[in-house]
Amino acid sequence: MDSKKRSSTEAEGSKERGLVHIWQAGSFPITPERLPGWGGKTVLQAALGVKHGVLLTEDGEVYSFGTLPWRSGPVEICPSSPILENALVGQYVITVATGSFHSGAVTDNGVAYMWGENSAGQCAVANQQYVPEPNPVSIADSEASPLLAVRILQLACGEEHTLALSISREIWAWGTGCQLGLITTAFPVTKPQKVEHLAGRVVLQVACGAFHSLALVQCLPSQDLKPVPERCNQCSQLLITMTDKEDHVIISDSHCCPLGVTLTESQAENHASTALSPSTETLDRQEEVFENTLVANDQSVATELNAVSAQITSSDAMSSQQNVMGTTEISSARNIPSYPDTQAVNEYLRKLSDHSVREDSEHGEKPVPSQPLLEEAIPNLHSPPTTSTSALNSLVVSCASAVGVRVAATYEAGALSLKKVMNFYSTTPCETGAQAGSSAIGPEGLKDSREEQVKQESMQGKKSSSLVDIREEETEGGSRRLSLPGLLSQVSPRLLRKAARVKTRTVVLTPTYSGEADALLPSLRTEVWTWGKGKEGQLGHGDVLPRLQPLCVKCLDGKEVIHLEAGGYHSLALTAKSQVYSWGSNTFGQLGHSDFPTTVPRLAKISSENGVWSIAAGRDYSLFLVDTEDFQPGLYYSGRQDPTEGDNLPENHSGSKTPVLLSCSKLGYISRVTAGKDSYLALVDKNIMGYIASLHELATTERRFYSKLSDIKSQILRPLLSLENLGTTTTVQLLQEVASRFSKLCYLIGQHGASLSSFLHGVKEARSLVILKHSSLFLDSYTEYCTSITNFLVMGGFQLLAKPAIDFLNKNQELLQDLSEVNDENTQLMEILNTLFFLPIRRLHNYAKVLLKLATCFEVASPEYQKLQDSSSCYECLALHLGRKRKEAEYTLGFWKTFPGKMTDSLRKPERRLLCESSNRALSLQHAGRFSVNWFILFNDALVHAQFSTHHVFPLATLWAEPLSEEAGGVNGLKITTPEEQFTLISSTPQEKTKWLRAISQAVDQALRGMSDLPPYGSGSSVQRQEPPISRSAKYTFYKDPRLKDATYDGRWLSGKPHGRGVLKWPDGKMYSGMFRNGLEDGYGEYRIPNKAMNKEDHYVGHWKEGKMCGQGVYSYASGEVFEGCFQDNMRHGHGLLRSGKLTSSSPSMFIGQWVMDKKAGYGVFDDITRGEKYMGMWQDDVCQGNGVVVTQFGLYYEGNFHLNKMMGNGVLLSEDDTIYEGEFSDDWTLSGKVGN
């Protein structure tokens, strides 16, 4: 790092970066301390364990501080100041991590080093209590051949385990416990093993709590085109079930594989924990079912619970199956006990719970009373059954609850009313406790109160959710509708069809592309997977079960999670929208909210106005870095709060119930926070020359901008798209195009906001900012969006929206004004909507302003200054350019409102813009009639000449304009040339003439460049040429010329005529490809003429002159004849060779000789291969005429005069036997003369 050149200001400023401040958890308000004994080195990253911490400096060195019992010597065990890890000297470390009592580091070449406590194998060393110094961990992929060392990107450490994320985005784990996610029961694992369950997926980040693990995983690409599997890979159950009833169809796609819902071998901290918890907030499911679960953690028995499906139909019959597999018995045997009554269930549960309590007692753990366990497990049995069906239903749900399965029960309307079902689940905990005959509250203590809390969450009544509810983005986690336990929604096929219709309208808002941006920026299409111990609900699956293997937290799908943090027994997820979801233990209020249940992710309520951009999770508290108005991050603390002196109220032990803002504004700009058990630490930058402040301003405003765009997308665009009667298909398509481009831009901004957050955690070098390095991504996205919204505006989209959207807009007027920042109450709704859609363009000015601020922090001569300055002007230029585009669109819209209706329909196009028009009589046609009306309208792609009700369009690409000289009598005249017209326009004043000439020239130039909608990137291309080139390439379809009518020419032009290389195609299939000169074929070219009768084509390749075949060429006829030779005026003329047919055809022949005007004339040789004759002699008008010789294949030889293909008059005949005949030949070839030998 030091070897890299830096400008002096940056080097000076870097001394004031990465300052370490440390607080004691729970004892606030208190000012932080500087880390004792720490010098001035810039710290890039810090990590805290229970009693120790690790610092990573800018030059890649690692320092440890705190209590380090694994080191040798009393001085090193509790050093007074951070000590350098000498084993890592010479290595450049890029990231560090700490567990409760161990540490890890990753070097730039991908090697992981571990040191510290190793009793559970968490340092990947076998049979060693402590690893005193950083020790390289050997990670090799056994599947690779040859064995390759796995390079590591990131480490995460828990209390007894470590996870490593490889460069190929796979997770490797070692240590002890189910939180490893490995398929093994042999602990400790000291040789790193791959977490196979996530192999093949792109893992973006890993995090470890004390005994649980989290992974941020990129969503799989769209599976639309791939066949959907019918059955679950793990348990072979059907993924989607459909039941056809008389008046309705029941469709269920809520299969939940029980993988991971496994009772593990008990660790030291295991207890008999219970849950009766609905699987809440599964937004991606169209139908939600109730999941009742119970786990008894047992040392000797690991019981895997397979899924059970119980269906109750109208025939009062009950069918229930349980598969229980015990590993202590011969494990392949499956017992299928059935419980005919409630008593059997009670007995079974009592055995489980008693056994579990006994095992815990042996480990010295406080036993949990078994009665509350039963009460939690079977809450429904305490409600008096009203009918026999109800009793059976109650039993099924309870039974399923006991063995931890998912129940999907379909009730017929007459068998069980909705009210009765609700009764089973609405019993309050107090009533349940009373009916059970014992109190649910055990001895006072956190563990018992936690269990009571879990029970209360589990017993809450849940509302039903219809199968056809269209998934909507919810702003508050608590407002989601939860499913009614055990019920499948019943809907008619008509409703299903209607639901499907609505849903297709909103697809456009989900960007499904994965282009350049995804490769350069963090992905927002993510999933959260969790595994490990779950007794505090820290896995987020709605229960308190452990998971042996990673399981996806479905309710975080689509939430755009960008970062995960795991505390001791709670978890945090930060989203791109600057929101935090939290779940798990909330004993001290560490989740930042008091919502129930805490076993599923809920939105933390940190600050009502500002978003969170960085998070940290300690043992029993959480930290949140929040954006503020002055861009200096605010630090909120939520969790354990120790009582102050003289304050002995026990309530204070419950922690801070609402997050508290710590006063740390004087410290500087916090770039990173990290949390341990009893202390937390912040890395702070001083704002030298405003550099750090400008970076924070850019990041904060970008994140806020994304939140606003997301709100517009979900609260305005989505409802607009779902409205009925939006107008013509074109309008709907244009609106969908706007929505699609808006969505794409919104996604890019979200990615950029996330990347800026991680940028602030790092070295903060200006040159590595994405808007500098990859500015084209942003410039292109903004330009594309502006093009789509101006096209929508030009086509009157906002006016067409007014009628169908008026009700929606009226209801949401305040929302519209708030989002668009329009404060004037008199502003019309459509104007506010217009402002709202053009809001993104304003952001470009902000980019330019902040980049300029950053540039001033560098010396003028430095490359950083130049780069920042150039980028700033680039964004400012684009902002001005797009501003002009908007004005052009509004000017064009105003013109269409006044233009005669019929012509508007034919001329109005989304991408067409008005430049100027002659309605003020400033331009007239020379020699026009007295009463004629000539209206000239210049668009960005055509000049339109309108007369009364007719009009003609002249494309600009094939339009030449030049001023007429005054000598020629053309006062203020403009000569307009097109391929088939030439006319003169007279302007009223010289200024008008100059204006029109300039406007036409610029429009033609832009049309030729094809850059009308592209910004002038850089300085060179922004300079307009004075006039467009006379010679150019263009495409044109002729409409008037008799020879070329309806033909299309694509090629080079010169002053209105095809000139140079080009292709000319006629509608009947004729085509010429080659050289042109002054509008005619001239030079070398290829010509094809289809022959429909023979279903073949004539084909000529050769030279042309003035539009006709002239010179050397080859003409292949459809009949099979081929002529090679000279042409003149489209005819064979001169020397040539004509082949007719082939040797196998009926009349093959060949002629070589002279041609005149398409006929054989002069000397020529004709070889008739079929008849075996060859004629050599003179020709005229395609027949033998004059002296000639015939030789036949039979040896006959004729020589004489020929007339009309016959030999006449004196001649000689020589036969095969040397007989010679000399004499006269008549028409019928009779001989009259002498014969000689």
The fold-level CATH name of the domain at 691-898 is Dbl Homology Domain, Chain A
Point out poorly predicted stretches: 1-13, 260-340, 352-508, 646-654, 1018-1022
CATH superfamily of the domain at 691-898: Dbl homology (DH) domain
Number of strands: 59
Write a brief structural summary.
With 1237 residues, this protein is α+β, with helices and mostly antiparallel strands. Among the domains are: 691-898, Dbl Homology Domain, Chain A (Up-down Bundle); 1029-1119, Histone H3 K4-specific methyltransferase SET7/9 N-terminal domain, CATH 2.20.110; 1135-1236, Histone H3 K4-specific methyltransferase SET7/9 N-terminal domain (Single Sheet). It is elongated and about 140 Å long.
What's the arrangement of secondary structure elements?
Layout: H1 8-14, E1 19-24, E2 33-34, E3 43-48, E4 52-57, E5 62-66, H2 74-77, E6 83-84, E7 93-98, E8 102-107, E9 112-117, E10 130-136, E11 140-141, E12 148-149, E13 152-157, E14 161-166, E15 171-175, E16 189-194, E17 203-208, E18 212-218, E19 241-244, E20 249-252, E21 303-305, E22 324-326, H3 342-362, H4 370-377, H5 388-403, H6 418-425, H7 429-436, H8 446-459, H9 493-505, H10 516-520, E23 526-532, E24 547-552, E25 561-566, E26 570-575, E27 580-584, E28 602-603, E29 612-617, E30 621-626, E31 634-639, E32 660-662, E33 669-675, E34 679-685, H11 691-721, H12 729-761, H13 770-773, H14 775-794, H15 797-811, H16 813-820, H17 829-837, H18 839-855, H19 863-898, H20 901-907, E35 914-917, E36 923-925, E37 935-939, E38 942-947, E39 950-955, E40 960-963, E41 973-977, E42 982-987, H21 990-1009, E43 1031-1037, E44 1048-1054, E45 1057-1065, E46 1071-1077, E47 1080-1091, E48 1096-1105, E49 1108-1116, E50 1122-1128, E51 1131-1140, E52 1149-1156, E53 1159-1168, E54 1173-1180, E55 1183-1192, E56 1197-1203, E57 1206-1214, E58 1220-1225, E59 1231-1236
Antiparallel strand pairs: 1-2, 1-34, 3-4, 4-5, 5-6, 7-8, 8-9, 9-10, 11-12, 13-14, 14-15, 15-16, 17-18, 18-23, 19-20, 21-22, 23-24, 25-26, 26-27, 27-28, 29-30, 30-31, 31-32, 33-34, 35-37, 36-42, 37-38, 38-39, 40-41, 41-42, 43-44, 44-45, 45-46, 46-47, 47-48, 48-49, 49-50, 50-51, 51-52, 52-53, ...
